[in-house]
Specification:
Layout (H helix, E strand, L loop, with lengths): L1 E6 L7 H5 L7 E5 L2 E10 L4 E9 L1 H6 L20 H10 L1 H4 L7 H5 L2 E11 L5 H8 L5 E8 L9 E13 L1 H16 L8 H10 L10 H8 L4 H15 L3 H17 L3 H16 L3 E5 L5 H7 L6 E6 L2 H13 L10 E5 L14 E5 L10 H12 L3 E7 L26 H15 L1 E8 L10 E8 L1
Parallel strand pairs: 8-9, 8-11, 9-10, 11-12
Antiparallel strand pairs: 1-4, 1-5, 2-3, 3-4, 5-7, 6-7, 12-14, 13-14
Helix pairs in contact: 3-7, 7-9, 8-10, 8-11, 9-10, 10-11
Bound molecules: S-adenosyl-L-homocysteine.
The site of S-adenosyl-L-homocysteine (SAH) has 17 residues, from helix 13.
């Protein structure tokens, strides 16, 4: 998938300042779906073109857990077409430009420039060329769409659902990038990730200044948020408030803003950061991540050289494969990758490979064990492996009443075998301590509620 951006306003190479990417260099960046390369096929005073090339790894996508149906096939069009991956690439590689900042040439960032964006392949199903125009023309773009035949050698096979699209306008670089960020996934209508509340926030942030007045704002919002009614209504309420027309909706928008604030850093990220902080403060050098899953914590541990050996263990081979890919894509200094090992194993059996470590993390794992197996888990970890410190987290069931979408009595995840109240967790932790010679300190994780506590809970066990 290729996006090029061209300007003809001399000195055209100023585009390099605006994009924070030097026209003489080719640069590559690792992203979750593969690689992104930035280079300039032409860079003269009169005309400069920056190219953003997405190198999507379709096999990696197909192997991702909970891959949407489309991605579950090894052969799909995702590597070639403009899709939500382009938005991810824009925000990661042209993040400052998207935010409108250019420290060295601030005036330039404010200036509307003659720009042409060319998207090599745009999926345009169900005769959507007219929709393409309705999206971009109200924003002032001259739209040229060239449809490709299915096969150049077989015109009788008819047209393909793919276009090459050129968008020309006099706009600020940040505006062009925001328009592409929001509207390319809208056009494609196959977002690759699960749409959650933070997507509302992204839509509103990148749609600022233009989406509230766009004639297609309902369609754009509905498609961007994958038609999830509640999110779409919240976003539209806020857009209307943006317009300054409806005070009732403005109140709704305040509620939304509060929710957005809380969702900004996800609970899981906060949980992982709390666990990381405990491990860092403990002085541990050799650490275990038991039930490491896809390796989110491993990545954080890998980035901190004070951990000299990090071992992740999981029962799921598939999760370990994903963790390995993630680690291989994480940029680490020479020799650092060797500190991290992945083991296949079960937590409910004694495993000599886990003995002699300073600390172990067990993040959101025990609730996946059958209650009768908890005894064997405690024996294997606290009885045999016996790390100096164990940081263990599990959901707090009392908090479930606060999740609107969770029917009463249900667990948060289909594979959870139980979820404990704070009291149940404490009782289990204190039994473990007296049997195996540890002391435990329990804390809530996430924003706590005075009645039901935090959404998650953490116990830090220290060996006597
Ligand atoms: N700790 C990770 C993953 C949590 S999901 C994170 O916080 O992101 C729970 C993980 O526990 C899954 O990857 C699952 O495969 C693993 N798991 C479940 N039962 C296990 C067992 N008996 N032995 C080892 N791992 C197990």
């Amino acid at each position: 998938m290729l996006l090029t951006i061209t300007t003809t306003r001399p000195p055209a190479t100023d585009l390099g300042w605006l994009l924070h990417k030097h026209p003489d260099r080719t640069q590559s960046f690792d992203v979750t779906f593969g690689k992104v390369h930035v280079f300039y096929p032409e860079a003269s005073d009169g005309r400069c073109t920056a190219a953003l090339l997405l190198d999507v790894d379709p096999v990696g996508l197909a192997r991702r857990d909970r891959a949407p149906e489309l991605l579950a096939q090894y052969v799909n069009d995702r590597p070639y077409v403009a899709s939500s991956f382009l938005s991810v690439a824009i925000s990661q590689v042209f993040g400052s430009a998207l935010g409108g900042s250019c420290k060295l040439k601030p005036d330039l960032a404010e200036e509307p420039l003659p720009l042409v964006a060319r998207l090599a392949v745009v999926p345009c199903r169900r005769g959507a060329e007219a929709f393409l125009r309705r999206l971009f023309e109200p924003l002032g773009y001259a739209v040229t769409a060239t449809r490709h035949p299915l096969d150049d050698h077989h015109p009788e096979w008819g047209e393909s659902p793919y276009f090459t699209v050129e968008l020309a306008a006099r706009v600020r670089v940040a505006e062009l990038l925001s328009h592409l960020y929001v509207l390319v996934p809208v056009l494609d209508d196959e977002k690759h990730y699960w749409v959650a509340h933070d997507e509302v926030e992204k839509l509103l942030r990148h749609g600022e200044g233009w989406l509230a007045t766009h004639p297609e704002k309902e369609q754009i919002t509905a498609r961007y948020l994958k038609r999830q009614g509640k999110l779409v209504r919240s976003a539209l309420a806020e857009l209307v408030a943006d317009d300054g027309t409806d005070p009732d909706d403005a109140a709704a928008a305040n509620d939304l803003a509060e929710e957005r604030l809380e969702a900004r850093v996800s609970l899981h990220e906060r949980r992982l950061n709390s666990v990381l902080a405990v491990l860092q403060e403990s002085g541990a050098k050799r650490v275990l991540d038991l039930g490491c899953g896809e390796g989110k914590l491993l990545r954080l541990l890998a980035a901190d050289p004070r951990f000299t050996e990090v071992v992740g263990l999981d029962v799921s081979v598939r999760s370990l494969e994903i963790a390995k890919q993630r680690l291989d894509r994480t940029r680490l200094f020479d020799g650092q990758r060797e500190r991290i090992k992945l083991l296949h194993g079960a937590l409910t059996y004694r495993d000599a490979r886990l003995e002699g470590f300073d600390a172990a993390a067990v993040v959101e794992v025990i609730e996946h064990l059958d209650p009768p197996r908890l005894e064997a888990f405690a024996q294997a970890l606290f009885g045999c492996a016996r790390p100096g410190v164990v940081v263990l987290t599990t959901p707090n069931r009392e908090y479930n009443v606060k999740f609107e979408n969770l029917p009463a009595g249900k667990f948060r995840h289909a594979d959870h075998r139980f979820e404990w109240t704070r009291g149940e967790f404490e009782a289990w932790a204190s039994a473990v301590c007296s049997r195996y010679g540890y002391t435990a300190h329990l804390t809530p994780l996430g924003d706590t509620d005075p009645t039901v506590g935090g959404p998650s809970q953490m116990a830090v066990f220290r060996r006597h």
